[in-house]
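Suppose you are handed only two things: the residues of a chain and a line of SMILES describing NAP. What would the bound structure be? This form records exactly that question and the answer produced for it, so the two can be stored side by side and reused later without any lookup.

QUESTION INPUTS
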Amino acid sequence: MSDADGLRYTKIPLNNGSDEIPALGFGTLIPDPVATKEAVRIALEVGFRQFDCAERYRNEAQVGEAMRAVINEGKVNRKDVFVGTKLWNTNHRPERVRPALEASLRRLQLDYVDLYCTHTPFAFKPGDDQDPRDENGKVIYDSATTLTDTWKALESLVDEGRCKAIGLSNVNLGQLKEVFEFARVKPAVIQVESHPYLPEWELLDYCKKNGIVMQAFAALGHGMEPKLLEDPVVTSIAKRVGKTPAQVLLAWGVQRGTSPLTTSTSGRYIKENFDIATLPDEAINEISQGISRRVRLNTVVETGVPGFIPRAK
Ligand SMILES: NC(=O)c1ccc[n+]([C@@H]2O[C@H](COP(=O)([O-])OP(=O)(O)OC[C@H]3O[C@@H](n4cnc5c(N)ncnc54)[C@H](OP(=O)(O)O)[C@@H]3O)[C@@H](O)[C@H]2O)c1
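ANSWER OUTPUT
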């Protein structure tokens, strides 16, 4: 395995928009605003060219400040960075979609995003409270708004050039097929939890057949139990090839044709996570076929309530 190979620069063609997406992505689900700014700067400087954001992360402004600073220093061109952000559940009503994207663009200090996804297929009660609850603490959904309504509003944003491509996050195969079949502008990307404990092969197969890119979040297991980074198959491959378990997991994600998203606030980890190299085929097969444990870490797909983001006090 060579450190100088081009795996880290892999790009995947898109069925819409900015031609292609850099496979290895940096996620910005970082609760601390100061740490967000620092992490995004480091990620750009070490070479990450794909960034995943969301209005729900409440830190688009810090992501934008960091990107703008690095662009203004002449270190990176805007057109070379693929930026995606996500529409939150409380903005699914068609009339709320454009203002939500415009607010994200303002915070990110951008004229357009390369990708705009619905964060979940669930519409919540519209309004400024991102986590609307009734007196019993139950989420208030908006049954008057369907995903079809929201998707049509997203299609108009592509027509207007405010986002180059549109996608869906936290969908299952049935929900994806439904949107894909009626859509005038097809989903270019889906963003779902995926790692060796949740490989989502069937979903990936459908995506590949239809030119949809599958972004895989929690690529390193989100630091939760069971610890994917300590899986014996992963650690033994890491030893054998002279890479870290994180690098093995990210290489597996890229080599099987997904776009793995990872996050860190540590400069050392951010650098490490970009420094991936191609794994031999037998290592890829060992992970794909030799790990049979199945775990979903994030239950957001079931309810629309984000599993990894603490509720605002
Ligand atoms: N669509 C959705 O609903 C959704 C949900 C979740 C996430 N996402 C996106 O996906 C991105 C990635 O998700 P994630 O946070 O679950 O990613 P992850 O990379 O699986 O987990 C991040 C955790 O791994 C640790 N880590 C990172 N690099 C490491 C390394 N080289 N060695 C050891 N530990 C390492 C981090 O620790 P430190 O912080 O200490 O470095 C952090 O605790 C998010 O930022 C977000 O953009 C989307």
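WHAT STANDS OUT: The two ends are 48 Å apart (CA to CA). The mean pLDDT is 96.
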